[in-house]
Design goal:
The chain is mainly β. The protein is 7% helix and 13% strand. The protein has two helices and six strands. Strands 1-2 form a two-stranded antiparallel sheet. Strands 3-4 form a two-stranded antiparallel ribbon. The radius of gyration is 19 Å and the shape is elongated.
Length: 124
């Protein structure tokens, strides 16, 4: 089967997945259903959003703005395209100094979208 003739061309890590991973799912009763057409091409249809909608735009997260299909590393992310450019001493600061793990009572995650980027929020 030539997947490149479909609307979902396999690239990166998707190439190594078996067909069953995407095309065979169990329904609520435990019955395996196979489906080959009409599958969503949104990353969130198969992958959990570990950012918990922090990058949502108009109800959708476009994972490919930061990630590619080779790995989930943020290889395409450019901090200088955000509202907080990294310059001067900020260029050498470890990400986790600003983007800390938080727990909102339901889950733990890294807070990427900071509410306060004023100098005094970190420097006092």
């Amino acid at each position: 089967f030539d997947h490149s003739k479909t609307p979902f061309i396999l690239t990166g890590a998707h190439i190594t997945q078996g067909c069953r991973k995407c095309h065979f799912k169990e329904d609520a009763s435990g019955t395996t259903i196979q489906k080959f057409t009409g599958l969503s091409q949104d990353c969130a249809a198969c992958h959990k959003d570990n950012h918990f909608n922090q990058f949502d735009k108009n109800g959708k997260t476009i994972c490919t703005e930061c990630h590619d299909t080779k790995s989930w590393d943020p290889v395409k992310f450019d901090h200088n395209k955000t509202t907080f450019r990294l310059d001067g001493g900020h260029e050498k600061v470890l990400c986790l100094k600003c983007h800390k793990s938080v727990n909102d009572g339901k889950r733990s995650f890294i807070q990427y979208k900071l509410k306060d980027t004023r100098c005094e929020s970190c420097h006092f």
